[in-house]
Amino acid sequence: MSTVKAIYPGTFDPLTNGHLDLIGRGAKIVDHLVVAILRNADKGSPLFSVEERLEMLREAIAENGYRQVSVDTFDGLLVDFARSQGAQAVLRGLRAITDYEYEFPMAMMNRKLDPNLETLFMMPNEQYTYVSSRLIKGVFKLGGDVSELVPPLVLRRMLAKGAARR
Ligand code: PNS
Asked: Which residues pair with 19 in a beta bridge?
């Protein structure tokens, strides 16, 4: 019997409830899901180091009991990482039409680079359609309440970082 392995790539800085929702959905339809944190992301100054993000993702996945989900990091091309993992698919979330504009060229470029790798899109619960790591970081830095938008274990670390900076 063939099994399906998918990669859910991203920067996850920080992990949001929307990401976790998508991990749960992905875990239901593939045999093995690898959540893959991009190491060399070119996105300004990160809130958390890659190692901290790895730890938080591992904790969140264990807390939710997702036994078919693992976490890893990657550098360079996603298609190369997917190939090294023996994955057949990439999972990405689509929240709104604006995501489609960002995702479509990436999916097509990945297909050009590796025609055997399929991109699967899933939509998170509608309550997370406006939730993004970028917005959460921005709101948090200005003292806003993001407690309903990130897992409690992420919030604790964000608050600890905020306190350490003060
Ligand atoms: O969380 P993000 O920033 O939306 O994730 C973007 C990510 C990591 C999926 C994308 O930047 C990526 O795959 N980067 C790896 C480099 C690569 O493969 N580029 C070519 C495909 S466009």
From this structure: none
